[in-house]
Amino acid sequence: MNAIGAAGLQLYRYGEAISIVFFTETWRPDSFYDRIAANKKLGLHTLCLLDIKVKEPSLEALCRGKKIYEPPRFMTINTAVEQLLEIEANRGEGACTPESKAVGVARIGADSQQIVAGTLAELVEVDFGAPLHSLILAGEMHHIELEAWERHRL
Asked: Which of 49, 88, 92, 147 is the most buried (most CB within 10 A)?
């Protein structure tokens, strides 16, 4: 959590963090949306931790009892935003619209770290490069936070 402070948003203004998992053809969970909405209602930021699939067996391997693993996959900010916007389109509650302010962070603490602020519609177009990625959905921002957000703006 402290590393995420590099985005310039005050740590005491974060609500509960959420995890966003990869959608599949038959599984499109959206239960975390309720936490985003609750944080937003309180004016708090939401740290979104993005799915990591490492040493995951395939469904076929599980069914056959074999230890065959799929290649590692790391969710990108782009995928997370696409999924959030799909959920918003289905629910229509306004917790994460295309105009919602957010910050995408990649490889925090590394020499190649990347921090980009923008709307969800803007961030979905950004190439954040190699993993690991996280996404921050901004709540109400103090003027100091707004200055930091503008510094990282596209």
From this structure: 88
